[in-house]
Amino acid sequence: MITLLRNGRRRHVQRGKQEVWHSFFAEDRDHPGPVAGGFGFLVAFDELRLPPGDSTEPHSDDEAEILTYVYKGALSQEDTAGNSGVIHAGEFQRMSTGRIRHKETSVSRSDWVHSFQISLRPSEIGIDRDHEQKRFTAAQRRNLLCVVASPDGRKGSLRIYQDVLVYSAILEPGHHLAYELATGRTAWIHVVCGEATLDDIVLTQGDGCGIMNEPSVSLTVQENTEMLLIDLGPANLRPWEKTSSGTDASPNRGGD
Q1: What is the pTM of this model?
Q2: What is d(CA 253, CA 225) in angstroms, rounded to the nearest whole number?
């Protein structure tokens, strides 16, 4: 089953020149999206554009693991716990956070920041607040799914404490991509830019889709395309629960 979320169905918020798009927003009861409450362990997927030198309002999040990808520009982050740093284009940061206030700033004097933030339900209550940051080059992501976050830090990826694998891909026109989903697992795809066909569905910039009860994800790109693919554990399984076999859910060990 494929659940399609078109770019125009995302919740769009504009404050001054800065803009944010929320793929999931359970509080918007007047215009609920098809996956307003999230998708399995994936509880938020936000896209942010900040003009040069601008900052978001200080805000706090529920306890979560947050993966930030800076697509363009340079993004400074700081919080009330004293943590700060800059994420540059092509870099991914994994941060474990609780109820602390933080804000983001576009540190460039001339370039806008364009970034994406993935929030995952934590694997347990009270996880340590820490962060890790790495750069993944365009060459590493060219015409393949490059794992950028995983529970075991495979292939130099960021280590997350959840049954989730996050991939990034930069694909050339005509490239066909296939990804096998282990039994019981789901996936979320977001098109950062470009155009791709999933089955008979044409996906363009800003579109997302959830995939459930399918053996694989198979798509072909029509133009230069960048996308994020998130391989998630069973959608109805909480981190502290067990599978029917009595063992903890374990992530698919396949992929690049």
Answers
A1: 0.85
A2: 25
